[in-house]
Amino acid sequence: MRTVLTIFIITVIVQVYSIDAYHLRFRRSTYIEQNVQELFQFAKNIVNDSGPMINAVIEAMPDTEDYEEYRGELENYLSRLDEYKENSGMCAKKSIELMVSFMDVMMPYAEEEEEISPQAKEVLRLLSENGLLNLQQQAEKWMENFDDEKLQEEYETWSKNDMNNMTSIWTEIC
Q1: 151: how many CB neighbours lie within 10 A of its CB?
Q2: 3, 24, 62, 95: most buried, per Cβ within 10 A?
Q3: What's the CA gap between 75 and 56, in Å, rounded?
Q4: Bridge-partner residues for 90, per DSSP?
């Protein structure tokens, strides 16, 4: 009787451990997938929101030589946005590349206000009025929730199966 009880207890422990291990595995994948999906969603938001925002800024920007450099950079970004929309490919890769391009274009406006030209201040004001603040808030929210150490720790324990579960996210075509 004691042996049967011991075997029963061991069986229950193994089953509970298996369920618990599955639960931990699910949490790990969910955390990583959640961060990746949120990043891709933010990149897609930039794709959707940046075009109208930049078009509005270009229209409102004074049509003087002082603004030609800024206008050219914004128009160059719009060309990359058009390429994104015209050419199909892996959505994640395309969206992240466009997000990086957008950040490159916005970088001069991230400097201290005292250090930028009056024209750059005006372009920044126009960008802010037309949606840049909303995109900045989305980026800040993602950064607040992002835990690099946790992501790295969980990534190091990823299995081939975990990576396969992410395939649909990485290979979506748009």
Answers
A1: 15
A2: 95
A3: 12
A4: 173
Q: What is the CA radius of gyration of the chain?
A: 24
Tell me whether residue 112 is exposed, middle or buried, using C-beta atoms within 10 angstroms of its C-beta: 0 to 12, 13 to 18, 19 or more.
exposed
- State phi, psi for 42 to the nearest 5 degrees: -60, -45
The rounded distance, in Å, linking the Cα atoms of 129 and 54 is 11
pTM of the model as a whole:
0.74
CA 169 – CA 18 distance, rounded (Å): 27
Amino acid (one-letter) located at 56: A
| 10-residue averages of pLDDT along the chain (174 residues) | 40 39 45 81 90 98 96 97 94 90 90 86 95 90 82 79 78 86
